[in-house]
Design goal:
The complex is a heterotrimer of chains A (about 280), B (about 250) and C (about 210). The longest helix of chain A is centred in the middle third of the chain and has 16 residues, at about 180-195. In chain A, helix 4 (about 105-115) crosses helix 5 (about 120-135) and helix 5 (about 120-135) crosses helix 6 (about 150-160). Helix content of chain A is about 35%, strand content about 20%. Chain A has helices spanning about 45-55, 55-60, 80-85, 105-115, 120-135, 150-160, 180-195, 205-210, 230-235, 235-240, 250-260, and strands at about 5-15, 20-30, 35-40, 65-70, 75, 85-90, 165-170, 200, 215-220, 225-230. Chain A starts with a strand and ends in a 26-residue tail after the last helix. Chain B is built from 10 helices and 2 strands, in the order H-H-H-H-E-E-H-H-H-H-H-H. A two-stranded antiparallel ribbon of chain B has the order 1-2. With about 210 residues, chain C is mainly α. Chain C contains 9 helices and no strands. Chain C has helices at about 1-10, 10-35, 45-50, 55-70, 80-95, 100-125, 135-145, 150-175, 180-185. The chains are: A alpha/beta (about 280), B mainly alpha (about 250), C mainly alpha (about 210). The interface between B and C is large, with 65 and 60 residues. The structure holds adenosine-5'-triphosphate and magnesium ion (MG). Adenosine-5'-triphosphate binds near residues 16 and 45 of chain A.
Chain lengths: ~280, ~250, ~210
């Protein structure tokens, strides 16, 4: 697989404030992969997303150093408008994430396509498809201003998916959702990956992160502690010291291990809970 | 589709009609002519099935203003031809004429636009303006303003309620009430401003500033009558001008 | 010139306009609820002028009065007054006339003058001196005392505007003081009001890269 995004020695600080929020960040994201960015609050995850989407430096000025490449081309050669067709961005706060000019969910989802100048028939077709994919057909005629946080989050996701970008950058999509809604959103994201999209996700719920991601990027105070396949990262000593939550199964397994229980391997998904203990030596 | 003969007209056809009335009462100085528009507007309102709200609106917003304007002209407009007197005031013929002329025009123009806003959907009007060249940004501003105003009204009520429970007085002497104003409005302004950065990012994510032509799902139809009527207005205006100048 | 004006309308400035307009409406509404004797219905326009410049404020004023017209079109001619206030606030801000409380009060007086000079002819020409609110009574009193129509309208406008505009401009001054630097740094005149002037150290980052 080829790298679709490459960051080399990237550092950044906002126009206000002396602190470098990202420090010497180097990473590579492979085309078609599902990569999650994990790290504690304030570690710079959202800032990194803004760089990947081009809002830094197009919108937030500040000092940006290092090189960022998208599909082999330097980021600075793209216009902000062009980037929008390649990279979709769903960000944290669902309450603000509506256009503010549309009075039905249908029109809201269609807004991006209108702006792109997509033909009318295609807009109707694509919006219908996405509404059913995200399971919000029943909200079609509702005013986006009157939706709950969880509903808005889905509408926000739908509004970006409908634009069919190659890369999806998603910053904490489940913050306003209940467990069922969260599972569902992750299923949608997985579906996007199956359709060949590259997924870059920021998420605190480690169970889901471990379940779905191919790779993890661990951020700590603006530095990349580690990047690698999900299992490798979670098994590593570095992750252990980064003081980030483990998935629940892993946490339980580590606790058992401490108590002397022998494990075949460190489980990171709920489905592995049975196999990881199946060693014939047996602890009873 | 709307079958009502008035409501189904193109927004600009309605708008030009209000402009047409405005221009006509400026050209024709006769107050009877200007007053005559009012019954015509009521008939149109009745055809559009908005007569009740139209008239109650006029009563609420225009009548007092018209009365004040009229009385002020009658009593204070400088003139020689005294036709009556009351207490220390003198009633002059010039004042009476000026009062009739001013009020007739305010009534005609004011009610023409009041009717316009009763029979047009703002969303359609904005779209119509966009179609004749208003930049899409302008349309965005107007539509988003119309969404934000009720939202902020709601928030300001919430803030005022919260203040009452925290002991900020909203009743009492003028000073006390005035002091409640600042803490009500400031958090509202600051929180709204704080959200604009993310709103900007949202819009950019939806290709707001993408180059090239945009599509619009919201379309207005122009029927033959919408092409003819504006020319009828122009024709009548030209007729009125000729009549004024040459006859 | 045109290009320069266009640059004022960046996305953040555009998004500020609906907020400013809503502030005009909500300010008026809250003043009514609190039964204050002044209107406080141009706070948003002044605020926009002060941080985003005269042209953005001009557009905000135009749209404010257009939306008011939906509810009562009769007063639409005063759109000219609102636009002049917005432009005036922008220029006052540009020349540092809101940098402290005293200058701000002077700015309030200047804006009062602008409002009076622009609105009086409208009142006289369109409404024969009447306005349909309390200031008509004041105007009538001056007229009864023998003043001519212009003198009466001017005097009554000064009386009704002065408190409103001075208070509005002062309010804006205090609001701007509490806006975050992060936001101000992105507005046209924001740098004039930032708590922290550009003192940013030019030092490079010293952290070595741990993992590559
Ligand atoms: N626009 C901005 N201007 C100045 N500083 C900012 C800005 N946005 C974020 N910061 C600062 O940058 C740092 C990193 O913030 P960022 O939002 O990237 O962290 P995060 O990892 O996404 O945190 P969270 O998990 O809370 O979402 C924080 O200290 C924050 O205060
Ligand atoms: Mg974040």
């Amino acid at each position: 697989m080829t790298a679709i995004i490459q960051l080399d020695n990237v550092s950044y600080r906002y126009p206000i404030g002396d602190e470098w929020i990202l420090k010497h960040v180097s990473l590579e994201i492979k085309k078609g992969s599902f990569v999650s960015i994990v790290g504690n609050n304030g570690s710079g995850k959202t800032t990194l997303c803004n760089i990947l989407r081009g809002f830094i430096p197009h919108f937030h000025k500040g000092d940006l150093e290092g090189t960022i490449k998208l599909g082999g081309t330097d980021m600075s050669e793209y216009q902000l408008g062009q980037l929008g067709e390649k990279i979709g961005f769903v960000f944290q706060n669902p309450f603000i994430q509506i256009s503010g000019v549309k009075d039905t969910v249908f029109d809201e989802v269609a807004y991006g396509l209108e702006n792109l100048g997509v033909a009318e028939e295609d807009i109707y077709k694509r919006v219908e498809e996405v509404l059913s994919l995200v399971k919000i057909q029943h909200l079609r005629e509702k005013n986006p201003f009157e939706l709950s946080g969880g509903q808005r989050q889905r509408v926000a996701l739908a509004s970006i998916i409908v634009m069919d970008p190659d890369i999806l950058v998603i910053d904490e999509p489940s913050s306003q959702l209940d467990p069922i809604g969260t599972e569902h959103v992750f299923e949608i994201i997985r579906l996007m990956k199956e359709r060949g999209k590259t997924i870059i996700l920021v998420e605190h719920k480690m169970d889901l992160v471990a379940e779905y991601s191919d790779e993890l990027i661990v951020l700590d105070k603006g530095e990349v502690l580690m990047q690698g396949p999900t299992r490798e990262v979670l098994e590593s000593e570095i992750f252990n010291t980064a003081n980030i939550q483990y998935p629940h199964v892993t946490e339980v397994a580590l606790e058992l291990q401490k108590q002397g229980v022998k494990l075949n391997f460190l489980p990171i998904r709920d489905s592995e809970i049975t196999t990881c203990f199946k060693n014939d030596g047996g602890n009873e | 589709m709307n079958q009502n003969p008035i409501l189904s007209l193109h927004p600009l056809t309605k708008f030009y009609f209000a402009i047409f009335i405005t221009v006509s009462v400026i050209i024709v100085p006769n107050y009877l002519f200007a007053y005559a528009w009012f019954p015509v507007l009521i008939v149109i309102a009745a055809m559009a099935k908005v007569a009740k709200s139209f008239i109650s609106f006029i009563l609420k917003t225009l009548i007092i203003l018209l009365a004040i304007v009229f009385l002020m002209q009658v009593f204070f407009y400088p003139g020689e031809d005294v036709i009556g007197s009351w207490w220390i005031f003198e009633l002059t013929n010039e004042g009476l004429l000026q009062g009739l002329s001013l009020t007739s025009r305010i009534l005609a123009i004011g009610s023409a636009f009041i009717l316009f806003f009763r029979i047009v959907e703002i969303k359609d009007f904005v779209k119509a303006l966009e179609d004749i060249g208003m930049p899409p940004t302008g349309a965005y501003i107007v539509l988003s303003t119309l969404q934000i105003i009720p939202e902020m009204r709601r928030q300001s009520n919430t803030i005022m309620e919260a203040q009452k429970t925290r002991g900020v007085e909203t009743e009492g002497s003028l000073i006390v009430r005035a002091k409640a104003f600042f803490p009500t409005l400031t958090p509202l302004i600051l929180s709204s401003i704080a959200s604009t950065e993310e709103r900007a990012i949202t819009l950019e994510s939806r290709a707001f500033s993408a180059p090239g032509k945009k599509t619009s799902l919201h379309k207005l139809t122009k029927r033959p009558i919408d092409r003819v009527l504006p020319w009828v207005y122009v024709g009548i205006i030209i007729g009125l001008i000729i009549w004024r100048v040459f006859l | 010139m045109l290009k320069k004006i266009k640059a004022d309308f960046n996305l953040l400035a555009i998004l500020l306009i609906p907020i400013g307009i809503a502030v005009n409406f909500v300010g008026f509404q809250v003043a009514q609820i609190l039964r204050l004797p002044i209107f406080l219905d141009t706070i948003g326009t002044i605020l926009i002028g002060v941080i985003a410049g005269p042209w953005v404020a001009l557009v905000a004023a135009l749209i404010t009065n257009s939306i008011t017209a939906i509810f009562n079109p009769v007063y639409f001619p005063y759109v000219v007054t609102s636009m002049a206030i917005g432009v005036g606030a922008g220029l006052l801000s540009k020349y540092g006339m809101l940098s402290n409380v005293y200058k701000t009060i002077v700015s309030g007086l200047v804006i009062t003058a602008i409002a009076v000079v622009v609105s009086s002819p409208i009142t006289v020409i369109f409404f024969g001196g009447a306005t349909g609110n309390t200031s008509s009574a004041i105007t009538a009193t001056f007229l009864a005392m023998g003043q001519n129509i212009w003198g009466a309208v001017f005097s009554s406008a000064i009386i009704t505007e002065i408190a409103d505009k001075v208070v509005s401009v002062l309010l804006v001054y205090f609001v701007v003081k509490s806006i975050s630097d992060r936001y101000l740094s992105k507005m046209k005149y924001g740098h004039l009001y930032m708590k922290k002037r550009n003192t940013k150290s030019k030092k490079r980052i010293t952290h070595p890269n741990l993992f590559t």
